[in-house]
Specification:
The chain contains nine helices and no strands. With 168 residues, the protein is an all-alpha fold. The protein starts with a helix and ends with a helix.
């Protein structure tokens, strides 16, 4: 791959991503069009290099999702929720979080916002897996967790409504 092609395909991750992790993520993104196994290897290496770097989870679950590997995407989203909750000091279980929401400000940090964004991704994956009841549960909690819709979950809520209407 030429240097120009690599620069054209560069993806901007969080500025907090460590340099070596970012390098692996960039290599993975560049490889993802032509060599998916190599891309997956780089994504996983980035995550193994720094398991606390939330962007590695994001990149890997998006990679799996776009390939239609929904169960693997779901697994990575769950890992992302676990890591974000660990770093944010709040429960990873979204149902428990819903019961204890008064204790947590989900807009307090980028980590909490990452959790919301990943929870939105989980709802979308559940819809794609035709697990509509699970998706609806997550989306109802998203209304509580994210009343300002900073995560953009309203897009998935609209999609879920359309799915329910089609099923009726």
């Amino acid at each position: 791959m030429s240097r120009v092609a690599f620069l054209e395909e560069r993806v901007l991750f969080s500025p907090d991503v460590p340099e070596e992790v970012n390098k692996l993520l960039q290599m993975a993104v560049a490889a993802s069009h032509a060599d998916k196994p190599l891309a997956e290897k780089y994504f996983k290496q980035a995550q193994q290099l720094d398991g606390s770097c939330l962007q590695t989870y994001f990149a890997l679950y998006k990679f799996y999702f776009y390939q239609g590997r929904l169960l693997e995407a779901e697994r990575e989203v769950m890992a992302a929720l676990e890591e974000a909750a660990r770093q944010g000091g709040f429960p990873a279980d979204y149902q428990r979080l819903g019961r204890e929401l008064g204790q947590w400000d989900m807009y307090a940090s980028d980590i909490a916002l990452f959790y919301l964004y990943s929870l939105k991704a989980l709802a979308f994956i559940k819809l794609r897996l035709q697990l509509d009841a699970e998706a609806q549960l997550i989306l109802s909690l998203m209304r509580q967790f994210d009343p300002e819709d900073r995560s953009g979950a309203s897009v998935i809520m609209d999609l879920a409504e359309a799915v329910l209407e089609d099923a009726a």
